[in-house]
Hints:
Strand order of the largest sheet of chain A: 3-2-4
Radius of gyration of chain A: 18 Å
Oligomer: heterodimer
Number of domains of chain B: 2
Number of strands of chain A: 4
Amino acid sequence: MTELLDPTSEREPSHRPLAARPDSLEGKTVGLLDISKPRGDVFLDEVQAALESKGVKVERFKKPTFTKPAPPDLRHEIETKCDLVIEALAD
Amino acid sequence: MTAERYVVVVNGECPTCALVRPALGSRFDVVDEDESLEFSYEYEIETVPTLLKFTHGEVVERTVGWSRDIWRKITGIEDLGEGLPEHRPGCGSRALEVPKPIDTTHLKSRRVAIGSAEDDIEACIARGWSDGLPVVPPTPERVARMLAGTKRDAQEIVAEIPPDLAPCTVEKVAINAVMAGCESSYLPVVLAAVEAACTDEFNMHGLLATTYFSGPVIVVNGPIAKRIGMNSGVNVLGQGNRANSSIGRALQLLIRNVGGGRPGGVDRATLGNPGKLSFCFAEDEDNSPWEPLAEGDAVTLFCGEGPRGVVDQISRTPESLAKSFAACLRTVAHPKLVLGFDAMLIVSPEHASRFRHAGWTKQRLRDEIYANLNIHGSELVRGAGGIEEGLPEGFKDATLPKFRPEGLLIVHAGGGAGLFSAIVGGWVAGATGSQTVTRAIGD
Lengths: 91, 443
């Protein structure tokens, strides 16, 4: 029998369940995260207008650069201020 | 431990051993049929019988074959071998001609058992460990031999590899280097490349995740390139050289296997490029008219797409050739996009000779290229030339350089014939994207 050495990080694949979805947006704060891709702001402006017309509170955020993960401080700020977040991922 | 000890190495097939052995009695330790060869390797036994005299654990005298006088002199036993012939030659041992048995007990990675009916290469592919080509199965013995290529401890953490930011040991690097087809002498280069790739400046995470073409391009400088047989000449960016092909592949396998970065997963490239299998080459320093990209044994990592050709078979003056380079460099990413993408210019020996004869330094060439790449905004703005891509209208009166000041790397490589050079376009340039990173290659 041949034995090979595992070339991976040996982390068992972990199943991450989706966060619980709210029944309604009433009284919730929605974060809108622009990742700094071109025209992400155009999309989020529309989303913001649609949400605010329904009386939903909106907070806007922007990553310094789309090429890197959001800095920990920004993630913390979103988590503190918002109940849910919508991210404009691509151009 | 007693101060003195006598060890005799014998083998049953040797007539002289058979003759001597009964005469030894209990005053000798006998190593008979050293099947593991451990003793034979440690004490370099090439003949049986061999008599070793140890004092305080060290061999102080030895003799091979049987010579009654010599054995008596070494042991001080006056009646040793009484009745035996005075002299008999020993038998040769081929112990040192077979590969030394390899200790793999220090390797810590999980051991994966492959079924007896399973092909080991197919098993690696089935487990998702391959970039699409067959890999060399990483047996513990192969990994142990690979680790002989570095003085670093197998369990030392080299870097945290994105996207999972998984801590990666020297041992994991060695496993993936085996799979990529590396020789052990390449391992220090792979280790340096991993360190360079996993810096915040190089931003391997973003480079992996991007929809753009690019991947890590590794340029090797210094005497090590020749020592390990890297190609810096004919077909330098192509196939056919084991070191060039396997070092870049090892880095990509590490990103895949340890970092967890896979095409269709975190790697979102729209088209990618064939260099994402391996894009690694050595600079031709010996024939270069210029200082090398990096001093000493070093790797330089650049976020590059595939190479594109620059043809200029007519220019005889450095000014003309520099303008050719500039004209071609303008097309990196898009002729109307500036400052967003760096580039690497790989100048071939025949093109380089134009600059050598004219006495142009590398900085002079760079300056001339930049001087020819200050572009007026009216050519760059959206709609200019009937092309909607371009800069916002506000730039129409500005003059902008194609590249940021440190955004053009110049390397000398390639075969001796051919008035061609190559451009490797970069990815998002600078602190918001990827910056070129150089790392010294250690032991």
